[in-house]
Design goal:
This protein has 3 helices and 4 strands. The protein is of the alpha+beta class. Strands 1-4-2-3 form a 4-stranded antiparallel sheet. Helix 1 packs antiparallel against helix 3. The termini are far apart.
Length: about 90
Amino acid sequence: MVAKEIIIRNEQGFHVRPAQLFVDKANEFRSDLKVRSESGEEADGKSMLDLMTLGLEQGARIVLEASGEDEQECLQALAELIESKFGES
């Protein structure tokens, strides 16, 4: 298992479009993925519904945890997506 803390930086937070991009990218990998909020709530990183229930806004700190055969690649790709602000300006 590998983990990385990251901050949601896009202006609108984890709304529908970023959540869909995240889930689409996460599902490209075989590894299991969990997303944990600062409050300790945990969501399946491959489930849009689970992610939306976290209510992540701009500035939220989250921890991504990947476990499986491609865990490093999974974590790297998702961290890059978040750091790019999901392509938003």
